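Schema walkthrough. Field components (list of strings):
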Amino acid sequence: MVRKFFVGGNWKCNGTAEEVKKIVTVLSEAEVPSEDDVEVVVSPPFVFLPVVKGLLRPDFQVAAQNCWVRRGGAFTGEISVEMLVNLGIPWVILGHSERRSLLNESNEFVGDKVAYALSLGLKVIACVGETLQQRESGSTMAVVAAQTKAIAANVSYWDNVVMAYEPVWAIGTGKVATPAQAQEVHLELRKWFHDNVGAEVAASTRIIYGGSVNGANCKELAGQPDVDGFLVGGASLKPEFIDIIKSAT
Ligand code: PEP
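Field assembly_structure (string):
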């Protein structure tokens, strides 16, 4: 079972129109492995999605960083799945730890968003991961399994889902998981899929790692058998994102 390497760039709440165009230019000029070997998806803030989509090289795709949980309407400040579909945005990141912790998004709420996004044809990068306290108390896999269960309950077609394991203690901290730590959780998560969803889904679903990935540490992480790519925050705004994409081959 071949799982195509996947590299996502989460630009978070960063950038001006000028900066965003500069990043897109750098990406456009880069020599990277072919689409057959790596799927690249960048996720600018909502307001820059149309311009980035318009300027981006055709072999890269875009993702929204969030979406509203159901059909749009009287939900001031929200962006609906219908709007993303209307603009031709193919992907959305859901369950990011910053939204879980800062905006109190529960496992169930994330699951509901996954359901609605998938129902209208969006593809989902679904994030899970434990805090440092949870890791230190030995509950990493229980936390990751509970988060995954709430997502899996809403998925019937797994080709449109990429799972991102992002330990909270590694996000934006410069404290990357060791290749062994990442591999251990990815393997456990794949076993969880095997036991709770099915052997085929376990073998084919991509599980990517996120948390302080950079140009220097990506190659060794990418070499782990169950690490199928990365979700990259800080480094996705820098030229080293290209090195991370290149770690696919
Ligand atoms: C992220 O925000 O998904 C992330 C992994 O951030 P960073 O790479 O900056 O740790």
